[in-house]
Amino acid sequence: MGTRNDSASYETHWKTSGMPEPELTEDNCLNPVTDAQVDYGGTRHTRTGYGSQSDSWRTYLAVNANEVPNHEDIAPLDNPVTLALNTCRQKVVRPYKTLLKVIAWHPLSGEADTYRSRVYNVLHVALVVLLVLTGYFIQYAACFRRERGVITHNLQMHLQLEVLGNGNHNHTTDITPRSTPVPIFQCKKHIISQFIIPDILHSLAYVYGFYLLRISQCEQLETLMEMVFLQSSPNHAGYQSQGKLIRNLRLLLYGGVTWVFLSLASQVMHIAAGYTSITFTWMSPHDHVAKGVLLFLMLVGFVALDMVYLCVVISYCVQCSLLVYYMRGLKERVLERTLSLEETIKKIGQFETYLQELNNKMSNAVSLVLFNFITMAVLGLVSLMDRKENEYFSALTFVSVSFALILWMTMWMVPIIQACMVSGACNTIRKLGHDVRVRPFGFTDTAANNLDSFIMFTATLNMRAKLFRIPIRASYVMFLVITVCLLLLLAFQLGTIEVWL
Is residue 211 helix, strand or coil? Predict the structure, then answer.
């Protein structure tokens, strides 16, 4: 009763005063719990009758606020779509763009309209290109191979036989070494195959990726990320789980960064094992300080080269992982009957479009660097197993070459494994029509003609991931690996390749 009387006296006051009633806004509302105080015409008035409603509303907000977990990087629970997109941008897209900024595949400054931002972006690109060229140049100047270190052979000069004659023609022999082990450099012998061609392939991969992601501004990866995140849910398991997807994508990113540090460590081990043999040929530093500066610049250049390798491989592998999650999650939704057959056909068409973009664009850059990975892995393996190559290896050299071999084999195996997984996901979609047809209890309200049409559609799909423009399948890769292993074993047994094992 008291509240109604106060409200009635309030309305009577404003009606008798002849002035319009002011509206309560965010500017003049002082406290939603206590009486509302407003100023009008220099007179301060108090508006009552809103305390009980405000108390109830504040209590409701406090209760609901306590129910929401205070997780980091979690968007407000407005709707599931906003939450999924914000989670995608904060947990995956942002670290990925940060990685691309390191090699200037993404603008350093987002505000490219200002003059200062344009200058920063140009200087950033010039710095990255300079570091890459420095890595090319100093590596050749030092005759340094990244899979085994400096290219030298310490050859002990043959002992010469000196025949000393006397008057009685009695000959005596004196065997004396005429020289100490001499490092003989072989840069000129393998300059094209081990330096020029790998550098050209590396530079082409960088320029091609720069064109795709920086000039043409291809946003396929971001669009694919958002589509996959919208399909998934925090409450689902398997290939519809956002948490599992985020963990796998972050594992790729963090694993790639770890590979760069391990690669740097292997190069440091190469330098430590062959420090006395590194002379930088025609540059020939006169003291240890100048040599140390050149070695530091060479390591910085190697980091720039490895970052290019990393961004090429990660860009491809992330898209492959997203495509695998998209198709396997789509299969789960169809079998759970949460997606109609008509929508499934549309989504398969979208998947085919993204797969063609992957095969026609980023797959080309990965194919270029795969040549370098496979070459360095094979040369490192030969260095370890061929007695002529490792005759003068020290213990540290064996360790560094073995470590580098593992790293380069990892880098060329990861893209191939991802491509095989995409082809496997495509194969599961081809079998999806049969899985649907043998589950009549799940599609009892679907016409038989529609089910038969869906079977025909999925059975005629011909989708494969490609590298070197060649379709990749796990069976093809296993056949190739087994064939190479048999040929190597046969070469060892015939003595074509001499090994120390």
Answer: helix
